């Protein structure tokens, strides 16, 4: 007799609270207070010396940014140096993961390289100078002194180290500037503009986004002035503006030797969730529009054939999944709103990246969707030490909504592994979205599709992709409808199609179970099906 596996719903009602007894010996620190004070005093002195050399207009309100790297044994929230920050008068600006090898470990263990956290803090330069002058005389009873044993290093960010990736030697280029400035700190941006003009740097500011206490600013300026620009103390990172990543199929599309397929009947879809796709567009009179509503933004140029082919293919995958030419096309689980957010070929417009993000942000801030799919993004592998505008803005938006997003991880899995160019692409490092990779088969025996970008992602979302779905292979392509007005089947492949196909499974779950299952439950079920 075949074994039955039952799905238990509302299982949380059967749970009850239990008392977990905690305790144990006091934490053993890697450094004594005296060791910590002697180690950190010269580091702080050097950091104060560095920020004191900055011009006055590089420090808004005379505040400078310094970095405090935590010892890896002091990463828990309960070990945050709150008393030290309060005593000194420092403001926490943010943090980032940092791989370090500490000088010592507790219980005489051998130090080893591991992940830690680097805190960004700001304080008036006069306050930092006073702290440096007094630190060597602090007694162990001084308020905040006990926090010193959890700090591994103190430093001031060097302007040249804020520049991420390579920049051309000269020439005016679009750059992405990341500032420690929230939406209520516009004076920092104003001060940066004055700093910019005072040095007669030719260039302009364009679009900007705020997320997670940071301002992502599009700056057009000479590459040879990058270090000078980065000397403004609140600048966290500066990089060449990445190009828009348009996930072209890894397998060249070709017609399937068959007659035009018969589309499923237009039946009412019960409990249809709200679904949005952001991609290359849909021809207004294409037969797929019986389920897909195309939207365009004002002022956009006409869509190219390449954009429409991609847009129809992604929408086809979201409606029908991989189409089996030998079987009837299944009925969709939901209707779709398809937003064309790409204005022209990505190679033609170096400013397209922020414009596309702005279009997506406008939609997500004005309409509620249960599911969204992104098969586009910046052409930029994950960077461990810095966050990108797309990731920050989308993660922030998704954290405050009930939207489940699927994002293609990219088709760079066969790029150079030594330089880690094969890693998942931005914004697939979103913590609050599902990063979708591709596998090469729909059968029980499968492998990662060679083109599918690999993990790890950026901390804390190290396990990426979250899921893999069939995305096609040379011997087994992914089948979609093409963009012809009398659509035929086309062979293609890539994470562009794996992502919306995975989203289709999610919409199917929601359609069948309605609102009885929340997004967390749907994510859990997808882990066991996709």
Folded structure, characterized:
The chain is of the alpha/beta class and 530 residues long. It has three domains: 33-157, no CATH class; 162-241, 2-Layer Sandwich (Alpha-Beta Plaits), CATH 3.30.70.260; 246-527, 3-Layer(aba) Sandwich (Rossmann fold), CATH 3.40.50.200. 24% of the residues lie in helices and 22% in strands. Strands 13-14-12-15-17-18-19 form a seven-stranded parallel sheet, with helices on one face. A five-stranded mixed sheet has the order 5-9-6-8-7. A four-stranded antiparallel sheet has the order 2-3-1-4. It starts with 32 loop residues before the first helix and ends with a helix.
User: How far apart, in Å, are the first and last alpha carbons?
Assistant: 27 Å
User: How many structural domains?
Assistant: 3
Can you tell me the CATH superfamily of the largest domain? Peptidase S8/S53 domain
- This entry's quaternary arrangement is single chain
Total strand count, please? 21
Overall pLDDT confidence? 90
Number of helices: 10
The helicity comes to 10-25%
- Major beta sheet summary: 7 strands, parallel
Low-confidence stretches: none
How is the CATH topology of the largest domain named? Rossmann fold
Tell me, briefly, the overall form. globular
Rg calculated over all Cα atoms: 26 Å
CATH architecture of the largest domain: 3-Layer(aba) Sandwich
Structural class category: alpha/beta
- Proportion of β residues? 15-25%
Strand order of the biggest β-sheet: 13-14-12-15-17-18-19
């Amino acid at each position: 007799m075949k074994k039955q596996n039952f799905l238990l719903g509302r299982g949380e009602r059967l749970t009850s609270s239990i008392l977990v007894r905690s305790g144990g010996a006091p934490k053993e620190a890697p450094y004594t207070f005296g060791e910590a004070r002697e180690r950190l005093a010269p580091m702080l002195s050097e950091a104060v010396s560095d920020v004191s050399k900055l011009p006055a207009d590089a420090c808004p309100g005379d505040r400078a940014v310094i970095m405090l790297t935590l010892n890896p044994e002091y990463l828990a929230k309960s070990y945050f140096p709150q008393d030290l920050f309060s005593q000194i008068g420092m403001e926490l600006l943010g943090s980032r993961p940092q791989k370090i090898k500490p000088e010592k470990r507790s219980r005489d263990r051998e130090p080893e390289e591991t992940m830690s956290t680097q805190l960004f803090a700001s304080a008036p330069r006069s306050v930092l100078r006073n702290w440096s002058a007094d630190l060597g005389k602090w007694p162990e009873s001084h308020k905040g002194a006990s926090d010193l044993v959890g700090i591994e290093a103190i430093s001031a960010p060097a302007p040249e180290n804020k520049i991420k990736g390579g920049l051309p030697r000269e020439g005016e280029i679009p750059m992405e500037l990341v500032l420690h400035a929230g939406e209520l700190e516009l004076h920092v941006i104003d001060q940066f503009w004055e700093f910019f003009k005072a040095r007669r740097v030719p260039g302009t500011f364009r679009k900007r986004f705020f997320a997670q206490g940071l301002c992502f600013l599009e700056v057009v300026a000479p590459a040879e002035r990058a270090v000078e620009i980065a000397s403004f103390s609140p600048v966290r990172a500066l990089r060449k503006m990445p190009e828009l990543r348009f996930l072209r199929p890894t397998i060249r599309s070709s017609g399937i030797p068959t007659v035009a397929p018969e589309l499923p009947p237009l039946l009412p879809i019960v409990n249809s969730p709200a679904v949005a796709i952001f991609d290359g567009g849909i021809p207004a009179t294409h037969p797929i529009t019986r389920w897909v509503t195309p939207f365009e933004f004002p002022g956009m140029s006409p869509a190219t054939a390449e954009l429409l082919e991609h847009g129809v293919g992604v929408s086809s995958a979201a409606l029908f999944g991989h189409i089996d030419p030998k079987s009837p096309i299944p009925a969709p689980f939901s209707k779709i709103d398809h937003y064309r957010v790409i204005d022209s070929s990505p190679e033609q417009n170096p400013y397209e990246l922020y414009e596309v993000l702005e279009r997506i942000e406008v939609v997500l801030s004005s309409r509620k969707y249960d599911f969204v799919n992104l098969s586009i993004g910046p052409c930029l592998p994950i960077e461990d030490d810095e966050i990108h505008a797309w990731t920050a803005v989308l993660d922030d938006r998704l954290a405050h909504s009930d939207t489940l997003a699927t994002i293609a991880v990219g088709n760079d899995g066969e790029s150079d592994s030594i330089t880690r160019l094969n890693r998942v692409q931005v914004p697939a490092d979103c913590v609050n979205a599902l990063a979708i990779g591709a596998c090469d088969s729909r059968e029980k025996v499968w492998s990662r599709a060679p083109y599918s970008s690999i993990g790890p992602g950026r901390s804390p979302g190290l396990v990426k992709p979250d899921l893999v779905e069939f995305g096609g292979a040379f011997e087994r392509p992914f089948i979609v409808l093409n963009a012809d007005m009398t659509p035929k089947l086309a062979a293609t492949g890539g994470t562009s199609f794996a992502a919306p196909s995975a989203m289709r499974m999610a919409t199917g779950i929601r359609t069948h179970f309605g609102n009885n299952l929340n997004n967390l439950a749907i994510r859990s079920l997808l882990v066991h099906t996709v």
